[in-house]
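hey so u asked for the seq, here:
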Amino acid sequence: MTAKVRYDDVEVGTEIPARTFEIDRLNLVMYAGASGDFNPIHWRESFATAVGLPDVIAHGMYTMAQGGRFVSDWAGDPGAVLDYGVRFSAPVVVPDEGGAQLEISGKVEEKRDGNTVVVALTARSLGQKVLTRAKAVVRLA
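ran it, structure tokens below
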């Protein structure tokens, strides 16, 4: 595959429209099975609250993966994402009833040689930033 977004069609400051990802406990159980991370803070409310959390929380890497999905969906090709990194600043709390929403948006921060751009991401849940320094280097068509 090749990225569908063209390098010549974006400029520094080009915004990528926000997208909301719904997260429920089933997502967390499926992620635990795929990743092997069965820490009970991600699926058992009594354990999560006993260790001082407000409720069950999403795996940090699951949250990060949604950011990667956001960028690769925008580019149109998962292989277009050359580098991606984040810092975790707050957990995504996932109540049993209603789950959680993770809103991710992006902005082209830099254009580089070789048809690559740096995309800065913003990820929020319940109005709080959950990822900081979230950036992806993407090769565009």
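The first strand starts at residue 15 and ends at 23. The helical segments are 25-35, 45-50, 60-75.
lmk if thats what u needed
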